[in-house]
Structures are given as structure tokens and as C-alpha cells.
């Protein structure tokens, strides 16, 4: 890259960085708009990475990480103030049996408070279970699955948002989610879902069958594989329409890896071969 080209790059980089900084400043930050601007910044750096001096690439990567962290902090703060928040006026544990349809002969682990966040998981501490969350109880609600192992969870209806943390050898099967799906610390699991946005953090050896209208964001992930949503069920067309997801538009293979700024394919994710895909 010549000095003239480098100067042009740095000028454009500064404009893109300033745009993101402006979007995350002040009150009432729109994190969706800020994330889109950050994705544009990340792509711009990725496209120019092969010809950039090493020190400029490191500086750009550092700035992207700081901006991404800022957006995540704002989202976490907003989430704490959202639907998961509850008061301590009632000391009794919630009754999960009214929320879930339990399979015959199986036990459900009661949800408990996570003090550091003030959140209430929908399901927590399950092993070797198969559970269906009924559509009447899931629709327009935030669902949080935490610390599950070797379990299958079927989510009916249209949740408002879906959060999944600390899942091991699980299978999560759902329809559309009205807004976003967030995963963290998941291992060797299968996820079948439709959504507007998806963020995957610190997860390994997971397969995703997605219908999504934006780019997927991954960070600190390894051996994740992606395929198009392939589940067929009677209410599919109606539910996807109600969730504002067009069945003809699917960006399941558009992945932004925040740990990989090269224009070459990230080694942290791949397309799931057709002969390896499960049938639903």
C-alpha cells in the first residue's frame, strides 16, 4: 500500500470510527444501528487488511474491540432493565409447571435468581431432559436457558428474545424469535431457530440451522457450522410472517467473526455439509 493509499484508508477509517463513536454516545443509544455501523467498519478493515502495515492493523483491531465492548455493555445494561428484571416483594420461588409442558415421567428444575444480574432463567440446571415450552407461555416473552446438559428443548410460539448460556450436548429447536438470539459458553450443541439478529460468544463445536435477516456475529468461537433453517411444521408460514421474517430472505451463511479481520475465510466457522445436516 502506497503512502497515498494509506492516507486515504486512514481518512476513511477515521470517519467510520467517529460514526460508531457518535452512535454509542449519549442516552437512548440504538444498538442495532451502532452494531450495523460497527460491522461496516469491520468489513472495511478486513477488506484492506492484506495490504495494511502491521501496526495500523493492530490499532484498527484494537479500536474495533473497544467499540464492540462498548455496544455490548450498553446492551447488557438495557437487558438488565428489561423483562428479566424483577423485585423481591415475593420471596417464594416461581412455579415453573405453569410455564412449561413437561414430558411424562420427567422432572423440571426450578428457575432461580442470578443475583449478579437480577435475572430469572426460564430453565436451569437440567440434565438428560426433553421439555417443550408451550406457545401460550413463550410468545412475546424473553426465554433464557442456562446450564443445560444432554437435553432437548422444543420452543413453541414466538418468543420476544432468546438467551442461551452454558449449554452442553443440547438440542434447541424453535420457530421464529421476534428480535434477537444470544448465545454464550455453549458446546457441542444444535440450534434450530429463526430471528432478526444472532450473537454467538465463546462457543465451540455447535451447529446452527438459521433463518435470519441480518449477519450473524461470532466472537471467541471455534468449529461452529452453519446451515439454512430446515424445520417444517404446520404453523411455520404464519409464525414467520408474524415475526416479520420473510421466508424468501435468509442470510444464514453471512457470518462476521470479530476475531478474524482477514478477507480470507475465518477458520472458526464453516458451512455444514449437506450430507451432515439433520432432518427435522
Description:
Belongs to the TBCC family. It is found in: Cytoplasm. Its main location: cytoplasm. This protein is α/β, with parallel strands linked by helices. It folds into 2 domains: 3-80, Tubulin Binding Cofactor C, N-terminal domain (Methane Monooxygenase Hydroxylase, Chain G, domain 1), CATH 1.20.58; 96-276, 3 Solenoid (Pectate Lyase C-like). Helices cover 28% and strands 27% of the residues. The protein has 5 helices and 15 strands. The chain has helices at residues 3-23, 31-48, 54-80, 135-138, 236-242, and strands at residues 100-102, 123-127, 130-133, 142-149, 152-155, 161-168, 171-176, 180-184, 190-195, 197-201, 207-212, 216-219, 224-228, 255-257, 269-271. The strands form 2 sheets. The chain has an 8-stranded mixed sheet with strand order 1-3-5-7-9-11-13-15. α1 runs parallel beside α3 and α2 (31-48) packs antiparallel against α3. The longest helix is centred in the first third of the chain and has 27 residues, at 54-80. The model is unreliable at 83-119 (pLDDT under 50).
Amino acid at each position: 500500500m502506497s503512502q497515498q493509499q494509506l492516507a486515504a484508508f486512514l481518512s476513511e477509517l477515521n470517519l467510520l470510527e467517529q460514526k460508531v463513536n457518535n452512535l454509542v454516545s449519549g442516552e437512548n443509544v440504538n444498538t442495532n444501528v451502532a452494531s450495523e455501523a460497527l460491522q461496516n467498519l469491520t468489513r472495511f478493515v478486513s477488506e484492506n487488511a492484506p495490504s495494511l502495515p502491521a501496526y495500523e492493523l493492530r490499532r484498527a483491531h484494537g479500536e474495533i474491540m473497544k467499540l464492540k465492548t462498548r455496544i455490548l455493555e450498553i446492551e447488557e445494561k438495557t437487558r438488565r432493565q428489561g423483562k428479566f428484571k424483577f423485585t423481591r416483594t415475593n420471596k417464594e420461588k416461581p412455579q415453573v409447571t405453569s410455564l412449561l409442558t413437561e414430558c411424562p415421567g420427567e422432572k423440571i428444575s426450578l428457575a432461580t435468581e442470578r443475583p449478579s444480574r437480577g435475572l430469572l432463567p426460564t430453565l436451569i440446571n437440567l440434565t438428560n431432559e426433553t421439555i417443550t415450552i408451550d406457545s401460550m407461555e413463550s410468545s412475546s416473552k424473553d426465554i433464557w436457558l442456562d446450564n443445560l446438559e444432554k437435553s432437548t428443548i422444543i420452543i413453541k410460539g414466538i418468543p420476544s428474545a432468546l438467551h442461551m448460556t452454558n449449554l452442553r450436548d443440547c438440542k434447541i429447536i424453535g420457530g421464529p424469535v421476534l428480535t434477537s438470539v444470544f448465545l454464550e459458553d455453549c458446546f457441542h450443541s444444535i440450534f434450530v431457530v429463526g430471528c432478526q439478529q444472532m450473537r454467538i460468544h465463546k462457543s465451540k463445536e455447535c451447529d446452527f440451522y438459521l433463518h435470519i435477516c441480518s449477519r450473524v456475529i461470532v466472537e471467541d468461537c471455534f468449529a461452529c457450522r452453519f446451515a439454512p433453517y430446515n424445520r417444517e411444521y404446520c404453523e411455520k408460514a404464519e409464525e414467520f410472517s408474524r415475526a416479520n421474517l420473510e421466508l424468501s430472505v435468509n442470510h444464514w451463511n453471512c457470518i462476521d467473526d470479530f476475531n478474524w479481520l482477514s478477507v480470507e475465510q475465518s477458520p472458526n466457522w464453516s458451512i455444514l455439509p449437506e450430507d451432515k445436516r439433520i432432518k427435522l
